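Hey, sorry to bother you again with one of my protein questions. I've been staring at a protein lately and its backbone has me curious. I owe you a coffee for this, so here goes:
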Amino acid sequence: MRNLVGRALVSVATTVVAAALLAPAASASPIGDAEAAMMAAWDKAGAGNSVLGARKGDVYPAGDGFALDFDGGKMFYTTDTGAKFVYGPILDKYESFGGPATSDLGFPTSNEVHGLAPDSRVATFSASDKPVIFFTPDHGAFVVRGAINAAWDKLGSSGGVLGVPVGDETYNGDLTSQKFTGGEVSWNRKTKEFTANPAALADQLK
């Protein structure tokens, strides 16, 4: 009888030790890390009182990372970008391009924040040409990226002479163009030169 009890106690102890060893490994999963990071970012933003509102559902794979839905927007996560959120028209624009799964914008690298122009908002993304999605109530949300974004930034971004975007990039052969409230900037991918309308803007981009 004593032997049976002894064996039972050893079996219980082994089970407890095994459970203790296995528990950390189970929780330290990529999706578990993503959830922890996104919930910490949600708490920091104000949790249910933030623009995101209440959580909806579980964390799910999105492209090379993860996403989590909220009543007012979405949180995205990769180990490189961390947990960042976008919402409203900027989220709609991002998802119209394919979001993290099929767009070439990458993942958000900043939470959506106020831009320089009145009532504007902006979010940055991880693609190598440093795209942003910029929104104003009067004109909507548009992607600005690459050489055009660099030119826009040099001219003062949304607080400068070029103003805010009023459309996405257009393409004509080697020429990439984008219109803003203060004019239009074009970049020739072959000659590596800017042109602009009004033309005087190009002088500031040399």
About this structure: DSSP finds six helices and twelve strands in the chain.
